Predict the structure of Acyl-CoA dehydrogenase family protein.
Amino acid sequence: MSLALHQDQATDLEALSTAFATRAAEHDRTARFPHVNFAALQAAGLIGLTVPRAQGGQGEGLTAAIEAIEAVSRGCASTGLVFAMNLTHQAALARDTAFPEALRTRVGADAVRHGALINALRVEPEMGSPSRGGLPQTTARRQADGSWRLSGRKIYSTGAPGLGWMLVWARDDADEPRVGPVLVPARASGITVEESWDHLGMRATASHDVVFEDVRLEDAHLAALRPPAAWRSPDAVGLAWNAAGLGAIYTGIARAAAAWIATFLRERVPSGLGKPLATLPRMQEKAGGIEALLNGNVRLLRGLAAEVDAGTPPPASESGLLKTTMIENAAQAVEIAVSLAGNHALSRRNPLERHWRDVQCGRAHVPTVDFAHQAAGRDWLEGAA
């Protein structure tokens, strides 16, 4: 049952989730961005769910966001990932006053009126993820007329063909460079999307390379750049949103897998048994294990979202642990479902093999298990000392 969404929104989401599920296999096969799904989300007024009311959005918090993300992800994992990133970054723009109000209002209004999606582009071929340190090679250079020109390459650019705005992690060309997100209109001249994405899972996210060649920008678009040291203090709210959004995506995937295996066990009647597999104690025990993992995720998501919406987010290292815990729970739940279905789980005729592929991608999102455990362990041991 919905905790934060209006009843009509919750009903719309369930209908959308069902519709997305009917197209998910084709989008997975072709690895094409699901524009039709985002048109449907826009028609339902959901692209602007976390855009401030002053900009025409609904101004919802994390509790409503995770409900929407989980429902969308049950239908189509790739749509859920891009949708989650959009809601997260719209909420972040509403909190962060680094960019001028007029520019933030433009981004929010674009989402509400035109369904313009936003996501962060951070990873580079040489540097990898910024979470591991290092300066980006993507650089904004000051021009004689006072404008800037941005050049560089980003990889793993989730949702690239469908974005209206890009938060590009970049540096300026000063002797002591500033770094941070540069707000770039995705249709600006000099931007090329190179179709490089061919992954095991989350195939329809179309997370291609994006190349920037002398993209012209004004000062306002670089207003969030800071000295590298200014980024060392973790953003507890932002990291909690990231953890909850990712947890909701992969819990949604696992819920779809659980629904499929439940139907399979109820309907599968081996001739030597003469009754459904669902009646066997072993199958019931395994199904209970799936429910234990996913019910745990639901409790973690609701508690985390409630704390964030109340203005009391957990420490950054705790959000990292919650993210990795929820991802592992979801992956284990799907793996149990696969073990129960046997060869049927590996057939492309059934969605379970797609759910298994998609859920593997959760482990690649930052923070990864090693990074999250190290950060939490350091905080704990230093605190204990």
